[in-house]
Amino acid sequence: MKIGERIRMRRKEENLTRDQVAEKVQMSETSLFNYEEGKRVPRADDLRKIAKALNTTTSYLIGEIDNPSIDALKKGTSNEDRDDPKHNPGLVELLLQELELVRLIRLEEQKKIKNDNEGLPGYVHKK
């Protein structure tokens, strides 16, 4: 199950609307919709906020564990450890995915700028 599916399922289990969750985590309802639909991947800090609002863990949302209960993690693991990439390899993977998305977005922006500039008088293409 993907992150978005887990967010949606947990939100419904908690009997919350998208609007209620979005308000709790201070993001737009559209952003939450895009996460649930798999159109975007939440940033690590947003994922932590969403997990807290849904009374679950980032480990559950990223699919590391199947039990959404906060108590499902081993006793003695603090919230800080759970959300620290050093102690949570799934979070590291999520951060790497986020970095790759940022890289792709920047490449697209650079292509657009280049295409926009090509029509300008005096533009010289640099290799």
Task: List its traits.
single chain, 127 residues, mainly alpha, 434 Repressor (Amino-terminal Domain), 7 helices
Task: Give a quick precis of the structure.
The chain is mainly α.
Stated plainly, the CATH topology is called 434 Repressor (Amino-terminal Domain)
* Helix share bin: 55-70%
Output mean pLDDT: 79
CATH architecture name: Orthogonal Bundle
The domain count comes to: 1
> How much of the polypeptide forms β-strand, as a percent range?
under 5%
Note the run of SSEs as H and E: HHHHHHH
Describe the structure.
The chain has about 130 residues and is an all-alpha fold. The protein has one domain: 434 Repressor (Amino-terminal Domain), CATH 1.10.260.40. About 60% of the residues lie in helices and about 0% in strands. The protein has seven helices and no strands. The protein has helices spanning about 5-15, 20-25, 30-35, 45-55, 60, 80, 90-120. Helix 2 (about 20-25) crosses helix 3 and helix 2 (about 20-25) packs across helix 4.
Tell me the layout of helices and strands.
Blueprint: H1 3-13, H2 18-25, H3 29-36, H4 44-53, H5 58-61, H6 79-82, H7 89-118
